[in-house]
Amino acid sequence: MSKIRAAITGVQGWVPDYVLTNQELENLVDTTSEWITTRTGIQERHILKGEGQGTSVIGINAVNGLLKKTNTSPEEIDLLICATVTGDMPFPDTANIIADAVGIKNAFCFDINAACSGFLYALTTGTKFVESGSHKKVIVVGADKMSSIIDYTDRTTCIIFGDGGGAVLLEPNEEYGIMDSLHHSDGVGQQYLFQKAGGSRYPPTIDTVINREHFVYQNGKPVFKAAVTGMSDVVTRIMERNNLTADDVSWLVPHQANRRIIETVSEMANFPMEKVMVNIHKYGNTTAGTIPICLWEWEPQLKKGDNLILTAFGGGFTWGAIYVKWAYDPAN
Ligand code: UT7
Questions:
Q1: pLDDT tens across 283-328, in order?
Q2: Which of 62, 219, 221, 46 has the alpha carbon at shortest distance from 146?
């Protein structure tokens, strides 16, 4: 009997309307559009504005679009996983809030927090439920409202992040789908990229607010180096163990944190940039959202049987790579 695989059978992204340009950031912090573009490749990012608008808004829009385009009724979904570091509330999980809003009643739902690698961790987790035969229609969401934890007086972080995300549907398939995955974590990274307060170690107080400890802190250089090393390593290894060369792979789909990181990883793994999905100039770093947004934007170009290598690196540290055999041709 052949192995049951989990195939991606649909993808839908969503970003909010408001566009925060480099020029607008020039008015907020001591920076220039030229510095941002040269050092990161980012020109603009989307921001979710409005009172009471959490990450679930991104997930709800993406999942509603996904259900519609795949002709799936919400009752058919039996598992929904949401990768995010900016859940609507500490609890309940944003996955539950999304499911409730879109009418998913027959699923169990939970969040995964693996920062920028969150979507890949969640995709591997969802895959295991499909491969085991226990679940038939699984939705994996990657979404973040990074603007809710960004200090717009800190020029080292506010220029990088944006809001957005996407969702994929996973279904059983004998030929196509998630072929292999490789993940790592290393707690040494916790000192370089974190949000100090708001959890159980430093619950919110007036002092944590005054000291701006509810925002993202990043020491960019060590994160940059670890991201390049980590992603190059997992991309190379997952290709080797599946007997793939860059010629066999149609697309490298990297997490969008910095264009220079993407270019270096591509070079180290021998991928020409024409085969690398890059949209960081439009969205910045949307954390768990970048990879599903890429898949959504490139969906019209993806063909059944295309080999894709997804890779991400993020806070924790967390990182990994997934080998996907794309399961469908573009809709006419
Ligand atoms: O997605 C999760 C994982 N995250 C990442 O992968 C991000 C990894 N890190 C990076 O992408 C880069 O390190 C950054 C984009 C965050 C920073 O770029 P960099 O080339 O590493 O710059 P740097 O931190 O070494 O700073 C160089 C200079 C510094 O000034 P001095 O000390 O040389 O005088 C900074 O103060 O640039 C200065 N600087 C800025 N200047 C203008 C830092 N941010 C800015 C800014 N505008 N926005």
A1: 999 999 999 999 999 999 999 999 999 999 999 999 999 999 999 9
A2: 46
Residue in 149, 159, 152, 133 with CA at minimum distance from that of residue 288: 149
- Of ligand 1's listed atoms, the one at least distance from the Cα of 220 is 13
Helix (H, G, I), strand (E, B) or coil at 74: helix
- Lining ligand 1 with CB less than 6 A are 31, 35-36, 39-40, 116, 155-156, 159, 220-221, 223-224, 227, 257-258, 261, 285, 313-314
Residue type, 209: V
Domains in the chain: ranges and CATH? 5-179 (3.40.47.10), 180-279+290-325 (3.40.47.10)
Ligand 1: which residue has its CA nearest to atom 21? 221
Sign of CA dihedral 104, 106, 111, 117: negative
Report CA(221)–ligand 1 centroid distance (Å).
Answer: 7
**Residue 301: burial class (beta carbons within 10 Å; 0-12, 13-18, 19+):** exposed
Q: What is the pLDDT of residues 160-185, one digit of tens each?
A: 999 999 999 999 999 999 999 999 99
Binning pLDDT at 50, 70 and 90, where does residue 1 land?
Answer: low
